[in-house]
């Protein structure tokens, strides 16, 4: 019987903050924690990235099984160099991913993420979905976490979900 569950995740081709081209296959064999946002985000992105980073710290050695990815929804401003500077000191566990507008749109569609540029005078913001997705080592969707969880709750959820979805587990 075919599943009626919507597929989350899938193929993307993006550029990491070091300038290398990546696909989901780049991260094969490791869990990935995927969050979409942008470096000019004033509240949600810094809060979620800080919370996620703290949760990974709380996991201890188990966090070594996870690759944290930050996919921009603002490719016009978030070049690999901008992402590298943003993540280096604040969120070093994260790999930033960017691409052309078309590549970002394809990644957003794959993850069923909403994000749309909202112009405000000479500047703009990009309202967006704030879920953090957990993908298994084969790149398949495991679950997502809302921004309302604490770092401790997220760490507990990650530990449980990783144990349940570890290959051979």
Automatic annotation (TrEMBL):
Coiled-coil boundaries: none
N-terminal signal peptide: none
Pfam family of the protein (one): SCO1-SenC
InterPro entries: SCO1/SenC, Thioredoxin-like_sf
CDD domains on file: SCO
Annotated family: Belongs to the SCO1/2 family.
PANTHER family assigned to the protein according to its UniProt record, in alphabetical order: ELECTRON TRANSPORT PROTIN SCO1/SENC FAMILY MEMBER (PTHR12151), LINALOOL DEHYDRATASE_ISOMERASE DOMAIN-CONTAINING PROTEIN (PTHR12151:SF25)
Protein name: SCO family protein
């Amino acid at each position: 019987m075919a599943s009626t569950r919507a597929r989350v995740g899938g193929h993307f081709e993006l550029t990491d903050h070091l300038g290398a081209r990546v696909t989901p296959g780049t991260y094969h064999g490791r869990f990935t924690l995927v969050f979409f946002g942008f470096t000019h985000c004033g509240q949600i992105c810094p809060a979620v990235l800080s919370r996620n980073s703290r949760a990974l710290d709380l996991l201890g050695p188990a966090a070594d099984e996870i690759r944290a990815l930050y996919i921009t929804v603002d490719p016009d401003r978030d070049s690999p160099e901008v992402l590298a500077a943003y993540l280096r000191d604040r969120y070093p566990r994260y790999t930033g991913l960017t691409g052309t507008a078309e590549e970002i749109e394809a990644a957003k569609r794959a993850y069923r993420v909403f994000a749309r540029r909202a112009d405000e005078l000479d500047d703009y913001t990009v309202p967006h979905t704030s879920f953090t997705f957990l993908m298994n080592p084969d790149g398949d969707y495991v679950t997502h976490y809302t921004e309302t969880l604490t770092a401790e709750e997220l760490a507990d959820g990650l530990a449980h979900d990783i144990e349940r979805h570890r290959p051979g587990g």
